[in-house]
Amino acid sequence: MYFSRSRDDKRYTEKKNKSERARRKKDDITRLRNLVDLTLNLDPRIKRIKQEEKEAREAKKKTKGGMSAAEQKAKAEEDKRKAEEEAQRKDEEEKVARAEAKKAKAAAANAAKKARRQQRAADADEAAPP
């Protein structure tokens, strides 16, 4: 670290100090990264985990590649057909639910009308002289 008295010298030394800090930080990060990489390469647990992941990827490739193109196409068509049937079934269920809701609403309206007619009739009977 450099110290100075004049403004220009202060700016110059600050610039130098800043670049020196940046260089040292970069060197430290590189050193640390190398240390971590070395540790990961030497650790048998990490090697075992990487080997297991590699074997899993290869097994997945093997099972996926095990199906022929015709089998894959047939499976895709079957999945598509099932999805279409499911969508159609949901549409039908929604239609039935809407129809039932409409019937219930109409029944409630009719019951309300009937209740109003009965009330009017009862009011008319009370208002009529004997």
What do these coordinates show?
- This protein is mainly alpha-helical.
- It folds into two domains: 1-66; 83-130.
- It contains three helices and no strands.
- The protein is elongated.
- The chain starts with 6 loop residues before the first helix and ends with a helix.
- The mean pLDDT is 89.
Structure at a glance:
The protein has 130 residues and is mainly alpha-helical. The protein has helices spanning 7-42, 44-66, 69-127.
Fold blueprint:
Blueprint: H1 7-42, H2 44-66, H3 69-127
Helix content: over 70%
SS content category: mainly alpha
Number of strands: 0
Could you give a short account of the major beta sheet? none
Low-confidence segments: none
Distance between the termini: 118 Å
**Overall geometric form:** elongated
Mean pLDDT: 89
Element-by-element helix/strand order: HHH
How many domains make up the coordinates? 2
Number of helices: 3
What proportion of the residues form beta strands (DSSP E)? under 5%
Rg: 41 Å
Key words describing this protein structure:
elongated, 3 helices, 91% helix, 130 residues, 2 domains, mainly alpha
